[in-house]
Amino acid sequence: MQTLVVHTLYRASSTVFFGAHLPDDTFFACAAFDAEMFYLSADVPLLNRRGARVRDRFAATVADFLREHWMESEGGGFLDGGASDTTSAAIRSMKSAGLTEDEVSRILVLILWGVHSNMLLVALWTMIYLVADPSAYTRVCDAIRAAYPGVSPSTFTLIDNFTDGYKTLVPFGGGLFMCKGREFALRIIETFFIMFMQMYDVADCGYAVPAKRNGSVSMVKPKTIPSIKVRRR
Ligand code: HEM
């Protein structure tokens, strides 16, 4: 399930921002960085050392990627491979502000982590909750397949087919500082599940979600990640 949900979504979403050439190593680096984030952000002496090493390696991978895929041009340069213009514009302004390659890479590391940490965990929990409750899974699956009856599993245009009025999956905060990536996160997660349910059937994996939980699904990591059997429809 980790590979199916987390890795697939990382690939899809990081490609939107950074283009098709962002190395897969960044996925593993991002996961390792996330695991160390508590000690790093709290700056816990000694315990933050491993996190600092993970962060340095992650930044070095991003720096290598930038050296290879940043194209200098008259307009100040851009990331190749279909990266978002917004990402290129952000890198251009960092460079024109005089930031070093290392500083730019470290900021991009934070952006990669910030975009993905909550989103991937919420998607993982969504899948865990769905497969742990076959009746819920069937209801969601039936609703999705009924809503998009004409869409062939091989059609990759579902992102244009959303109905309005979806409820949010998770709290995104509120007021001035409300999550700025919420539309993106919902769209990525919804697109994944719509495409997944159009393409695959899932066998009941007999997984039981812990009965008592009081943590947010964007913060708490599952103790174990179940395996699921999927079959192409
Ligand atoms: C399901 C996934 C996500 C969840 C649950 C989530 C949740 C949150 C929460 C609770 C906050 C703090 C809001 C507050 O202080 O009131 C926040 C802030 C923020 N989020 Fe997200 N987020 C998610 C995905 C994303 C993504 C994908 C991005 C970027 C593409 C993003 C960008 C941001 C930014 C930039 C802020 C700071 C906003 C500000 O201070 O003005 N988030 N998020």
Q: Count up the helices.
A: 7
Distance between the termini: 18 Å
Helix content: 55-70%
N-to-C SSE series? HHHEEHHHHEE
* Rg (C-alpha, Å): 19 Å
Number of strands: 4
As a percent range, the share of strand residues is: under 5%
Overall mean pLDDT: 86
What count of structural domains? 2
Bound heterogens, unique = protoporphyrin IX containing FE
CA-based shape: globular
Q: How would you characterize the largest beta sheet?
A: 2 strands, antiparallel
User: In what order do the strands lie side by side in the largest sheet?
Assistant: 1-2
Backbone structural class: mainly alpha
Low-confidence stretches: 155-164, 166-170
Oligomer: single chain
Protein name: Cytochrome P450
Topology:
Blueprint: H1 2-18, H2 25-41, H3 49-69, E1 70-71, E2 78-79, H4 85-96, H5 101-132, H6 134-147, H7 182-199, E3 200-202, E4 230-232
Antiparallel strand pairs: 1-2, 3-4
Helix pairs in contact: 1-5, 2-3, 2-5, 3-5, 5-7
Bound molecules: protoporphyrin IX containing FE.
Protoporphyrin IX containing FE is lined by residues 114-115, 118-119, 122, 170, 172-174, 177-181, 184-185, 218.
Protein name: Cytochrome P450
